[in-house]
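Before a colleague's protein record goes any further, I have to sign it off. I want your independent view on whether this chain really folds as the tokens say. The record follows directly below this note.
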Amino acid sequence: MPSGTIVTSVEDVVAVVSGIFESSQREIVLLTPPSLLSIAGTYHTVERAKQFIQNGGVLRGITTISPANVEEVRMRLDIGVDLRHSDQPHELYVFVGDRQRSISGINIGIDEYTLATPVTAFWSESPAYAEYLLVSFENAWAEAVPAEERIQELLSDGV
């Protein structure tokens, strides 16, 4: 699948994400709904993330942390992913590797992604487009809460 392609399936989004993991060396950032994070985890992206971090890469991400996914979040924290929580409804998802390769999508009205969910995502290898996405990511990052803080909040609420 060539760069600059519109991707229309969650399975293809995960394939592009896997390729970004394989080609990135320094930094990966992601802004994703929890259900996409879960789906990606079933395709060995956790192992890829662990290897990426062990090789000196930095992986930062934003998702919504709830009682339903707290264990999955802890697993990622344990391997060194720097995760933050946001209550904001991010209908945009972003995955950027080494400020060059990216996939992003805006899918309005999807509460939970499955492999069968139709999506519209854009895969690019343009550094200019990646920088554009990084501005959105950094703005969301600045407003998000560290994952450990959110987990403690959930624990104090009896979760």
Notes: The chain has a mean pLDDT of 90. Residues 127-143 form the longest helix (17 residues).
